[in-house]
Structures are given as structure tokens and as C-alpha cells.
Amino acid sequence: MAQRLQLHQLLETFTPNVYFQPPTNVQLKYPCIVYKRDFADTKFADDVPYNHTKRYQVTIIDRDPDSDIPDQVAAMPMSLFNRFYTAENLNHDVYSVFF
Amino acid sequence: MAPLTWDDVGDRLYEVGVDHGVLYLPDSAGVYNTGVAWNGLTTVTESPSGADANPQYADNIKYLNLIAAEEFGATIEAFTYPDEFAACDGTNIDTPGVAVGQQGRQMFGLSYRTKVGNDVDGVDHGYKLHLVYGCQAAPSEKAYATINDSPEAISFSWDVTTSPHPVTGMKPTSLIVVDSTTVDPADLTSLETLLYGQAATPAALPTPDAVIALFAGP
Question: A45 at the B interface (CB within 8 A)?
Fold first, then answer.
């Protein structure tokens, strides 16, 4: 299974509403997790890219300001909190996750 | 006679990269007849030392300059190492899966390839094969660190000292470099067949004399 699909399955254990790079016409159901590719780290050896790890921007959107979903994302390996903001009475927690 | 010129097209040479690392283990006779690929090689730093000047004075002048013997050392850095290197790093794995440290350190040979580039062909202009004999690795630090917010693989590093190998008609040496842009391509293919092995024969590191004889022509 592709790495991204494994990440998708893992995020679905936090909430069933998980969206990967959703188009603008998709109606989001809250609480939800929206994630997208935003970076990749490459290590070089033997004159070639030896190891390549993708990073995703994972945004948890929830009406509940005390939601435990951000804590579950924060507990993932190689997860780092990026920022928090509110928009339209929705709480947004943004994490960067290498997976 | 044509005047000197600089930086002509095709003459802007440079060297870059390191790949095709091979570890060679000697048999009881000292013949490097077992070669294994070394994956994840990131850096090989060649560090010759010695050759210190020892000036001698007489008649109120600097009379002569005695030069000490030169030694060859290196530092190998890699993300990983072949299982066979364990014996060279003081680890005994006679019981599969159980590594016992602080044991004797086996001598080994090493070869690696660096690329030669120029302004016309880029980094594919040619390459150099570096053959190192009589290596012994010193104990080295392995800094295991927690996984954090970004992926960081451990970079292993070994300081290597060498014992020179005899060469007929020359001083003993630990290092031979073969330049693909200069030598005969057929002879180079023969050397690479030896170094990297083929279906019927394992990879092996020929002696300096054998390498020189290979390129000496008929």
C-alpha cells in the first residue's frame, strides 16, 4: 500500500472525515482532517537520492476548541505543531508530519 | 610552440561525487578475494599524513631537507555498512544475530569511484577508481538520537589507517587511483570485472603490481 494511503488510514482512526487535497466544491463534514503534500526531504548517498521522505501539512478543523484530535496528530512520529487559528467559528490546528 | 592557454573548452575539469564503494576482505594469505558492495556511502575523505620536513643545517646554511615517510589515512562516512564490515569494526557475529563488540579488528581493502567532470560532458566525462590497501578502522562514535520532527538518518563514520602494500620497483603504497579518461578502455573494463566480479567469479581487489601490469600493455 502506498505511504499516503497508510497515512490516510491512520488519520481515519482519529476521525472518519479525512480529506486529501479536496477540491473547493467538496462540502466538508466537521470535525475533519484536511491534509496535503507540502515538502519532501531527500538524503543523498552513492551519488543518488538514497532516501526520500514526504512531508504533509495536516490541518484539523473542529468546532470544539478542546478537541483531542490535534493531540492524536501531535503524538504521531515526526509530527510538529505549526500554527493555530480560527476561521468562521472553526478551530484550525496545523501540523507538519513526515510520513 | 603554441603559447599557454587557460580554461579552454573541454579543459575545465573538476571532480565530484563518490559511489560504487566495495569492501574487500583478505583471506589467510592476505589476498583480497571477497568483495561486497558498500551501500549508502556518503563521503570518503582521503587524509595523507607524514612527509614532514626535517631540515638539517651545516656550514651556517640549510644544508638539506630530510622528508619523513608518508602515510595514508581516510575517513569513511556512510548511512550503513555491509555485514562483513563488522569484523573490521571490532565486532564478532559468529552467533547469527548476536554482535559482540571490542574484538580484534580485521584488515580490509576498499575501492570507490569518483566522477570527473568537464564543461562539455558534465559529470559524465570520466571517473577515477580509488583502490585502498591494508586498511584498519579505528573505534568510532555512533550517535543514536531520538526521532524528531524531521527524518535524520545516522551518519556512521570511521577513521581508517593503512599499512602500505609492496609494489615492485617503487615504495610500498596504500592507494592506487586509475583515471578512466587516460587508461585504455578495454583494460579498464578488465579491472572493473575484477573489482566488481561477475557471475562466475566474486569481486576481488588485485594487488598493486597486478593493477599496474594490467595497464602496462603487451
Answer: yes
- Distance (Å) from the C-alpha of residue B90 to the closest C-alpha of chain A? 25
Q: What is the pLDDT of residues B153-194, one digit of tens each?
A: 999 999 999 999 999 999 999 999 999 999 999 999 999 999
What B124-129 contacts at long range (C-beta under 8 Å, 24+ apart), as own/partner pairs, is B125/B13, B125/B181, B126/B179, B126/B180, B126/B181, B127/B180, B128/B15, B128/B177, B128/B178, B128/B179, B128/B180, B129/B177, B129/B178, B129/B180, B129/B191, B129/B192, B129/B195
* Cβ contact B79–A47 (<8 Å): no
Q: Is B19 on the interface with A (CB under 8 A)?
A: yes
User: Does pLDDT of B149 surpass 90?
Assistant: no
**Separation in Å, CA of B19 to nearest CA in chain A:** 4
For A11-46, what is each residue's pLDDT tens digit? 999 999 999 999 999 999 999 999 999 999 999 999
Phi and psi of A72, rounded to 5°?
A: -70, -40
Contact B72, B175 (CB under 8 A): yes
pTM for the model stands at 0.89
- Do A79 and B149 count as a contact with CB atoms less than 8 A apart? yes
Q: Is the Cβ pair A96, B21 closer than 8 Å?
A: no
> Which pLDDT score, from 0 to 100, does residue B106 have?
96
State whether the Cα torsion A11-A12-A13-A16 is positive or negative: positive
Nearest CB to B42; choose among A41, A45, A96: A45
